[in-house]
Amino acid sequence: MANESRPCPCDIGDRFDYGGRGQEVQVGHIKAYVCKPPTSTDKAVIVIHDIFGWQLPNTRYIADMLTTNGYIAICPDFFVGQEAWKPSNDWATFEDWVKTRNAGKIDKEVDVVLKYLRDQCGAKKIGVIGFCWGGAAVQHLMLKNPHLKTGVSLYGVISRFEDKHSLLHPTFFIFGEKDDIIPLEQVTLLEQKLKQNCKVDYEVKIYPGQTHGFVHRKREDINPQDKPYIEEGRKDMINWLNKYL
Q: What family is this (predicted)?
């Protein structure tokens, strides 16, 4: 991750001044943000937050965007009450911090959320998207959870699962060309491994000139040249979900 002398690449661009259209609910032992479309549907998407946690307005903005496209969206607190990372935190402590928040150990929470979506929301087709830390979590779930239909990993930290590529479900991987956290060599290697080992549909896409977090973190009006790629990333995500849900 970024060192102390540089800002976190996740911080490039403003946070949305956004309150959210959904509500916070208790789902088993965790809290979650839930938003539902006006008409009933049996399609749902689990949104996995980045290191800044489930209450980040940017992430809720994307959850609500999924709802406007006809999906029940739920963003659970996968840190289970532990504090999210703050921009003011010392980056020298990051590795110790993230060790207690393992993106590959969220299965218990996902099971609780799946039960809630099925029993309380009537969901039958369920996908997952995730950003950064959550993107790594998506890759983990696509490797082992039989109950999810599809996934979109947005700038998921490849190094967390670099030796595992036998995906169970169609998965779309979104990366930025100028991502300081995920070098393009890692993305190239991921593509090679998927080609060798993956039996299901997948796509790896690199967006020109984009930095880490571009789809959900950067405001479209900060750098006008980025706006088309931000919009393209969001549209690609929705199209992938539409195709497999």
A: Belongs to the dienelactone hydrolase family.
